[in-house]
Amino acid sequence: MEFATDSSVNRKLQKVSVIVTALFVMLFLFSVITSYVVHEIVDDFDTTDKMNLARSYAIDIRRQALNDQESLENGAFFIDPHGITNESNVASFNRSNFNAVGICKLDSTCEIMTSRDKTFFVPFAEIDEALIEVVTQAWMGRNTTSGLFESKFTGDRVISFATPVYDNSGKICSVYFAQRVAATLSLLLSEHFGRQLYRGSVFLVDSNGNILATAGNVAIKRFGDTIYSAEDFSYDFNQRMQEAIRHQQSESLSVSIYNKDYTLYMVPVGFNDWYILSLSAESVKDIPIYNSIMMLIYLILFAVLVVVCAGVVFLFIIKKSFQAQLRMANYDSLTNASTYNKFRYTVQRQLELNQEFSVIATNIRDFRYISEMFGDKLGDHLLEAVVRLSARFSAISLVCRTDADQFYFIINLHDEERIRGVMLQLSTMISNAGLRFNCTYPILVYSGVAMSTPGDNPSRLVQKAQFAHGFANKPFTHYVQFYNENMHRKYSELKTIESDMRSSLENGEFKMYLQPKVDIRTGKVCAAEALVRWIKDGKLMMPNDFVPVFTKNGFCVELDLYMFQQACNQIKAWTTAGYDPIPISVNQSKMLFFSTGYVDNLRRMLTTQGVDPRYLVVEILESIAARNVDELNSHIEKIHELGIKVSLDDFGSAYSSLNLFTSLDVDEVKFDNHFLLEKDQAKKEKNKLILGLLIPAFKKFDKVSVAEGVETAEDLAFLKEIGCDVAQGYYYSKPIPVDEFETRFMADRKVGGDAQG
After folding, report:
1. What's the pTM?
2. Tag placement on the chain: N or C end, fewer CB within 10 Å?
3. Using CA atoms, how far apart are residues 595 and 398, in angstroms rounded to an integer?
C-alpha cells in the first residue's frame, strides 16, 4: 500500500538536501582551492615582478654611476694636470652633471671648481675627509667612489668620484675628482618609481647601510644615516639585512610598519658595493589581473551561493507545501483526527506485523439533529472532544474521522470486557462534554467493534466494525456491539426487509392492529392506538424487527403516512357501518413530523375520506420534545388547526423534563410502560411514587394522562387511586387485528345496537 507519511517525505527531502549540500560544498571547495592556487600563482608572479623591479633600480643606478665614472675618466685624459680653470676644462665641466670638480697636485694643493662658478685653492689636508679618502685611493692608481657626505665647498650632500691623472711617461701626476649631488640619484629613483603602480619606498645604501638616496611614500619611523637605525626594524631584521648586504645576495624580507605588512626586496647594484632596498606595501590583492580573476571566482561563488540559497528556500517551500498537503491528506482540519487513508495504512501495517488489535466504528446518536437544534458550535465541540478525550486512553493508538460524526478507532486491545470498559468510559466523557453548552438532549455514543483475526485486511476489518456498528444503535443508552458471524444472517435479513418494504406497502402487507385505551373511571374503551404489523408470506413480523431499519433508511415517513391513512379509512369504515367511532392514535416519527408538507398531507387525507378530525390523535415521541420548544409548538398548532389532537408518547423514558413539558401544547401525555413493568419491586414502588406526584400535577394543566403497561388489577387500582385518566396494556388486550377489535370492543358502539358491557 503506497502512502505518503511525514517521515517518508522528510527522508526524500533529506536526500535532496544532502545532494544540494554536497554540490555546494564541492563548488565551495573548488572556489577556495582555485582562489588559493590563483593567489599563489599571482603571489609568485608578484614576488618575481617586485624583485625584477628592484633589479631595474639597481641597473639604473649602476648605469648612472658607471656613466659618471666614465665621464670622470674621459675628463682626466684631457685635463690640464696643472689646473682646471682653463677655458677647455670649464667648458667640459659645464657639460657634465657634476656640481663640482677638482684636481689634487703633487705639491699637496687642490683646486676645486663648483657649478656656482666658484673656485677654491686649498691645501690637500683641508678638503672633506671623505674626499681625502677617495683621492688617496686614486693616488694609488684606483678609481674610487666615496660615501655620502656634506661638501664644505657647496653645502650639498654629495658622492665623490676620483680617478688618477697620468703624464706622458705614464706616471700619476695628479688626481682628478668630481662630486654628484645625492639628490640627483634620489631623483633618478623617483623617476623610475613614479612609473610603477606599486606603493612603497626604495633606498640606495652602501655596504655599511648608509643611505645614499631614497624615493617613495612610506614614512619609516625615525632613522639616521643608516638603514639599520629605523625604529620599525627589529634587531633580527637588521641582522638579516646586514647578512644579505655583506654577501651581496638578493633577498626578500617581511616587515610590519604601522601594523601593515611590507616586503623588502634587496638587490646588489654591482657598483662600489651599493645595494638597492625596495620596500613594497603592495599586496597581491592589488594586482589588477589578480583582482579580475578573484572577482570572477567570487562572482561564480556568489552565483553558486545564490543558487544554493534559492535551492534551500525552494526545498523549504516544498517541504512546507508537502507538510501542508500531508496534513490535509492525513489529518482532519477540524478535529486533527487522522484521515481514512492514514487509518487504512496504519491498520495494514499492524496486520503485517501480526499485532493483535481492534477496529471500532463510532457515532454520536442524532448528531445532525443536535447540531441543528443546539448550534454548530456544540457539534464542533463534541467532534473535537471525541479526539481530545481519546488521547487520554493509552490503548487507543489512532482516531480517524471520515464524515460528520463517523469515527474509527484503532485500539490495541483484544479483550471484549476491556474494550467495552474503555469505550463506555469514553462515551460517558463525550456525553459530559455537552454539559458545557447546557445541552438538554442526551448525548449517546454507540460503537461497533471488530477484533483482528488472521487473514484480515483493512477493508474486511472496517466492514466487520460497520456490521457491528449497525447493530449497536440501541435507544437511550451508550452501547458497544462486538462483531460475530451471526450478524451476516441478521444483515441479510435487514437487506431482505429493505428490498421488500416498498412492494409490501403497495401490496397492503403492512396491517394496522389496534390496542384499546380504557377510561379508568367508566371502564369503557374510549380510544385505540394504531400499531403496525407486517405480514409477509403468512408470517407475522413485529415492529422491533423492521421499524429501526425504516427509521434509519427513512422509509418510516412513508409507513407513518400509510398508517395515518389506514386510521382515516377505519374511522370512515366505522362511520359507514353505523358505529360511533372512537379516536385512533397514530405514531408519527420525528423525520415525518418535521418534514415539509406534513400538515398538508394530513389535511388531504382527512378531506379525501371526509373524516371528522376529532377522531384522530397524532402521537409524537418524547425525543421530539427536546427540539426547540417554540418550533415544536408551531407545528403542534398547525395540527390543532386541522382539529387533530397531539399526544406525547413514552413520557419518562429518557428525556423527561417538567419545565419542557409544561411549555408544550400537547393534549395528552402517555407515561412509558417501564413505570409499571419494572420487575424490581423496590424500583417499581419508586416509579409509582413518581406517577403519584406527576399525574395529579398534569391534571392542573388540563392534560389527559395515559398509563401504558397495565397488566394487573393491582396496577389498575393504583392508577384509579392517583386519578389517572386512561389505561392501556395487556390487562385489557394486546394489539389485535381490526376485525377482532370491532368484535371485542365496538359492538356496544353500534348505533341502534344492543349495549354490551
Report:
1. 0.47
2. C
3. 38
